[in-house]
Amino acid sequence: MEQRPISQAIIKRLPRYYRYLGELIAQGVERISSNEFSKLMGVTASQIRQDLNNFGGFGQQGYGYNVKNLYEEIGKILGIDRVHNIIVVGAGNFGRALAGYSDFERRGFRIKALFDRDPEKVGHEINGIEVHSIDEIQDYIRENNIEIVALTVPKAAAIDLAQKLVGTGIKGIWNFAHTDLKVPKDIVVENVHLSESIMRLSYNIVNHEKMER
Amino acid sequence: MEQRPISQAIIKRLPRYYRYLGELIAQGVERISSNEFSKLMGVTASQIRQDLNNFGGFGQQGYGYNVKNLYEEIGKILGIDRVHNIIVVGAGNFGRALAGYSDFERRGFRIKALFDRDPEKVGHEINGIEVHSIDEIQDYIRENNIEIVALTVPKAAAIDLAQKLVGTGIKGIWNFAHTDLKVPKDIVVENVHLSESIMRLSYNIVNHEKMER
After folding, report:
1. CATH number 1.10.10.10 given to B8-77
2. What ipTM does the predicted assembly reach?
3. In the CATH scheme, what architecture does the domain B84-196 have?
């Protein structure tokens, strides 16, 4: 079977399906009709069908979706049926927040270590996770099978670090710095640009006011 | 002139244009051809033209873009030519990180106060910003012209708080809780769902590996 590339719009929706299915499981729901699921998610049933058809489709005519089954299948598609080792660079408030976020562990993302350049922080533990010196980062990655590096450092440091990470074998950068990182294609970058997020909020507020007038 | 609704895809790109133009200004660049700008941004010149045409277009044939002018115009479109008052609920690591992020202030987002339900935190200052009791939030919003509330609290607390915020006059919620908030249409919600972000990263890593094989 030839694989069509999946659009980023679909990939954006998959984790949301996964979240809702997880909530249904927690509520003890075993199956759900495509109509109910569509109402719950606030998207059309045909949108859901189309999205899932990209991966072979999972619904059955007259039955709907088996919640647990669909949850597991989407988990596999998202690659969270296995453990991903992560390190966090920057032991400031953001780094601490990530280190304290127990939800990640449940979803297969294991934060193995924090890194900082401040000698005062190195050697301490945050939420049971040790802070290492930034000088050790390349060796640590190679020796500990690290797949993802979260960068919670200022822009200039992030650009500099991204270059150091090339060739270490990491597969992804989770970038919280307010810049676009230039790295070879074998490293995937996922950006969390909070400044851009709040500007979108501002735009939508201002535009909403205009429409009300 | 009839206003077409602007797609969220364009709204997603505007803050990025704004960021690059800000960097050009910092470098002393006064004008840029549409080709150079497109190379810098990694999008086609026609994409940029189309996006900006939604707002009347700003380039001139044979001249390109006036950097400072375009920066200011996009700032106006994004509604960041005026100050937005924000409060942050949750004085944990995420709340502290937002309170310490000086970039927001520069862009017209002023964090006026933090709120927490922990009496140990109330009355203290974080980065010069006072922590108030969550019980005072509605009065505080009304008396201080608060437009945006950032929610950095667990899911159940966020759902509960969103209901309390209805009718206070706020215009937007910046939601960091891992849930979709149901609020009336006059309140805009911008979600920052970190769990979904890291699942997208995981998907792209796993899918990238498959393509390499």
Report:
1. yes
2. 0.92
3. 3-Layer(aba) Sandwich (3.40)
B17, closest residue in chain A (CA to CA): A196
Which of A95-109, B37-51, B134-148 is least confident? A95-109
> From the list B190, B197, B198, which residue is nearest A200 (CB)?
B190
Q: In a 3-state reduction of DSSP, which class is residue B113?
A: strand
Q: Which of A93, A208, A209 sits opposite B96 (nearest CB)?
A: A93
* Chain B residues in contact with A93 (beta carbon < 8 A): 93-94, 96-97, 100
For residue A129, the cross-strand partners are A126
CB atoms inside a 10 Å sphere around CB A40: 15
Structure tokens at B110: 């002023």
Residues in A touching B90 (Cβ below 8 Å): none
Rounded Cα distance, A24 and B16, in Å: 37
Residue B144 has phi, psi (to 5 degrees) of -120, 15
Q: What are phi and psi of A187, to 5 degrees?
A: -110, 120
Which pTM value belongs to this model?
0.92
Domain definitions of chain B by residue range: 8-77, 84-196
* pLDDT 10s digits, B70-96: 999 999 999 999 999 999 999 999 999
pLDDT per residue over A149-174, tens digit each? 999 999 999 999 999 999 999 999 99
